[in-house]
Amino acid sequence: MGTFNKYILRQVAASAFMTVALFVFVLVLGNVIKEVVGDLAAGRLGLGYFLYIVALLIPGVIPYALPMGMLTGILLVFGRMSSQSEVVAMKACGRSLYSMAAPVFFLAIIASIFSVGINFYYAPAADYAYKTSLKNLIRTNPLQFIQPGSFIKDFPGYVIYANSADGNELKGFRIWELDKQGRAQIAIQSDSGILEYDDANDQILLTLKSGSAERSRADDPENLRRLLPTGRFDELVIKLPLNEIMGGLDKKKNRLKFMTFGELMAARDTWHPRPLELTTPDLAYRDRIEVNTQIQKNFAMAFSIFSMVVLAVPLGIKASRSETFANLALALALAMSYYMFTVFISWLERYPSCRPDVLIWIPNIIFQIAGTIMMVRSARN
């Protein structure tokens, strides 16, 4: 590889590395804020465990950060080179646009192959480890969800409060069951409550001792002073489901996004998200198309790096901008259009006759055709 190609390769690799790192940070931060930062602030996660959870989120965002980072890095490098007339100078020395783009395409192919490994092995394994880690944390310490002296609203349909805790036993316990409008329809209070984790049903069991329950009137649910007669109990068990908190916890590794390449290939004829006796030939075909779509989506996302690079090289030269924010905005617009197209095609999984497993490649084809046309025109000019 000549000095010229090494120069281009170093420039693009350095710029792409920084932009990929930026997008990884932004995407991981978004997931952390959405899913686990509240639990860290509430004291449910230790700092060490929190950092471990953050590390598990990184492989899942790399398939999105790599294409955007490569696209942005190339726009920055070639935009700067074009604005400073370096491209014109290189052409005057006998260098063609294709020779300038060759090291970039080489880097894009390497990144695409790397992304295939991430999409089919590391990302599914990390996602499953993330879900399993949260589930194990809840199994070993279910009390983490109930902080004494605070109103807990993490469980859908309930508001929970306890004065103090002694081991896994809560003292001075109160719980309100809410209706669909978020109004308290049942108020329960007890002297103590015990928390246990039910692994079979993936839920927390709250056993209340010696308490009473009051129900609001259906004709005036918001007036808590007009309650129906109080009922007393010696023991009451309340089931608190965990499937809607902390991103949802799966008992078995049966979701397609958690499957590696080998598991997806084996699942094409065996995976059915319902009892086998309820699976008709039409539903079996739909399930097969859904698995094939996941496989093709992983491949298409990996090779989207190459598709975006083909478009980014001539676009960066044509834009002739050295401004970082302008190139970043352009890259985000292109990447978002690609991902929106992919999401739209993914919706067609409900209609297997449309063959979404084939259509998922359309965004790549469009980007490559547009990039090739622009590359030929730029080379002629």
Describe this structure in words.
The chain has 381 residues and is α+β, with helices and mostly antiparallel strands. The chain is built from 10 helices and 5 strands. It has helices at 3-35, 37-41, 47-83, 86-92, 97-140, 261-267, 281-319, 324-346, 356-359, 362-380; strands at residues 158-166, 169-178, 184-198, 203-215, 231-241. It has a 5-stranded antiparallel β-sheet with strand order 1-2-3-4-5. α1 packs parallel to α5 (97-140) and α5 (97-140) crosses α7. The longest helix has 44 residues, at 97-140. The model is unreliable at 224-228 and 246-253 (pLDDT under 50).
Key phrases:
381 residues; alpha+beta; 5-stranded antiparallel beta sheet; 10 helices; 15% strand
Characterize the quaternary organization of these chains: single chain
SS content category: alpha+beta
Terminus-to-terminus distance: 26 Å
Shape: elongated
Instruction: Spell the H/E element sequence.
Output: HHHHHEEEEEHHHHH
Q: What helical percentage do the residues reach?
A: 55-70%
Give the DSSP E fraction (strand runs of 2 or more residues): 15-25%
Number of E-state strands: 5
Summarize the helices and strands and which ones pair or pack:
Layout: H1 3-35, H2 37-41, H3 47-83, H4 86-92, H5 97-140, E1 158-166, E2 169-178, E3 184-198, E4 203-215, E5 231-241, H6 261-267, H7 281-319, H8 324-346, H9 356-359, H10 362-380
Antiparallel strand pairs: 1-2, 2-3, 3-4, 4-5
Quick overview:
The protein is an alpha+beta fold. The chain has helices spanning 3-35, 37-41, 47-83, 86-92, 97-140, 261-267, 281-319, 324-346, 356-359, 362-380, and strands at residues 158-166, 169-178, 184-198, 203-215, 231-241. A hairpin with a 4-residue loop joins β3 and β4 (203-215).
